[in-house]
């Protein structure tokens, strides 16, 4: 865990591979959002496999899965196992809760990750859910420690709600994780390009003015784009996740690195 002094950019590097992603729904997601279409669920392990990874030395897990039509994730189907493993192995859990109040997540999470949208119409185009920014904030207040994520350019690479989202969240929290849209092959948004780096820079500059702690999250396009991205934001962030030089001072999710 790190403490980030106000107005001092520390640039801690994070290697997220030490936190293992877990899906409670396998590869199923009822929403099949256009930027993902359940693609990333294929790379997650099952709850039953957690002890296998504990034996390999892992102690932190991202508990997630595909969403149901109301934006919830059915964690409760594995309530007994998740409680048992956390107690038995003294695990750290980061729950990616979707858009729901989950009592199990509230009880077991060391930290909760939530995606945020500053515009109802953008969220509906992505998730097909009728939720306002205030609805998301009301859900977040149910949890003890929440780290908000904004994906820059999630609307097919377009800049849309991001600045408004930053303004809203700056009144709720002093830290923000900024991800960058990845055009994922074989999805409806796979044909689009990542956001213009100049637009990315503008968003990060605004975030730097509004937040005590600014994090470049793990969702970043690969290759030369990632190298350029990290180069242009390096002086504006406290945390760089997946640094291109292969370093990683903190081992695990960036949400763990900034949670108290």
UniProtKB/TrEMBL annotation:
Signal peptide per UniProt: none
Lineage top rank: taxon: Bacteria
A molecular function GO annotation: iron-sulfur cluster binding
Keywords on record: Iron, Iron-sulfur, Metal-binding, S-adenosyl-L-methionine
Key word S-adenosyl-L-methionine present: yes
Iron-sulfur listed as a keyword: yes
InterPro entries per the UniProt record, alphabetical: Aldolase_TIM, rSAM, rSAM_sf
Alphabetized PANTHER family for the sequence: BIOTIN SYNTHASE-RELATED PROTEIN, RADICAL SAM SUPERFAMILY, RADICAL SAM CORE DOMAIN-CONTAINING PROTEIN
Name the UniProt record assigns to this protein: Radical SAM domain protein
Protein source organism: Thermotoga neapolitana (strain ATCC 49049 / DSM 4359 / NBRC 107923 / NS-E)
